[in-house]
Amino acid sequence: MMVPEISIVIPVYNEEESLPRLFEELYPVMEKLGRKYEIVFVNDGSKDKSFSMLYDFQKMHPHAVRLIDFNGNFGQHMAIMAAFSHVCGKFIITLDADLQNPPSEIPKLVKKMDEGHDVVGSCRKNRRDPFFRKAASRVVNKITNSITGLQINDYGCMLRGYDRRIIDIIANSNESTTFIPALGQKYAVNPVEIVVEHREREYGMSKYSMFRLIRLNFDLMTSFSLSPLQWVTMSGMGISVLSFLLVAYMLIRRFVIGSEAEGLFTLMAIQFFLTGISIMSLGIIGEYIGRIYKQIQKRPRFVIKKIWEEDIDE
Ligand code: UDP
Ligand code: MG
């Protein structure tokens, strides 16, 4: 395989319906760019026909396509991580397989990279996703920026470009849970964000359930900041001060007015509130401890079954 200039990285998990159109749209865009390129697909343990379709496509274009086949489902970010350790290009562009990021936007990213930006982020114009996801994302993007201290307008948009230097740093960071766009932004020297088209998912369904999305957001927050832990400490301090004042007031009241008998339900309400805060705080601490546990287990973050590419092909 010739050394490519641009590497396209695409994680694939059960996308048999989208793949034919992806091949159809992506290939001409890349050919038209007129630069040496490679497309690296990662099959993230698909249970449908995705693997055999990717396999056929790789056989059809052995010089341009590489296929990394995972041993199971390790998640979108781990799939991208695996590809990052294998890409050869000078510029690396990630893309979803479901065509929500139109391949025709790739040249825009390449142009920005040519201008010298080491990370090209993107922000979805008229994002076509269910309303509740868009609303939740808006809030999450704001909170995440303030927690992590990064500046990304659209964390969820995976159509992004990275310079070789950034990819090497990301591939060498050995985190067991992570969030690629945030890692890229963290190490970027000269990042830029562009607006890209976004399409509705036409085939298949989103691979993220509500629960999985929440977990992914916890990954993002815990990987990039300790401030949730500091909130726990601060809220504990705040509550201690308030309850001290309350005790002092009750004591004075007892001497001046006499003991108070009413207010049972007020007491219960306060108690429920405090129990809620305690459980939540335990949970936040637990999120970090769980990740420390995963990290020290040092299990492989992903397992590659086989790589299909020109050089090692039979
Ligand atoms: N994906 C993956 N592994 C997973 C989940 C998703 O490789 O466990 C891939 C999926 O095939 C797609 C991309 O990640 O190419 C984004 O997934 P999806 O479109 O479901 O996410 P959404 O657009 O709903 O955020
Ligand atoms: Mg999608």
TrEMBL record:
InterPro entries: Glyco_trans_2-like, Glycosyltransferase_2, Nucleotide-diphossugar_trans. The chain crosses the membrane at residues 231-252, 264-289. GO terms for molecular function: undecaprenyl-phosphate 4-deoxy-4-formamido-L-arabinose transferase activity. Keywords: Cell membrane, Glycosyltransferase, Lipopolysaccharide biosynthesis, Membrane, Transferase, Transmembrane, Transmembrane helix. Residues 7-167 form the Glycosyltransferase 2-like domain. Its EC number is 2.4.2.53. It is an enzyme of class 2 (transferase). Gene3D superfamilies: Spore Coat Polysaccharide Biosynthesis Protein SpsA, Chain A. The keyword Glycosyltransferase applies. This is Undecaprenyl-phosphate 4-deoxy-4-formamido-L-arabinose transferase. It comes from Pectinatus haikarae. The lineage of its organism: Bacteria, Bacillati, Bacillota, Negativicutes, Selenomonadales.
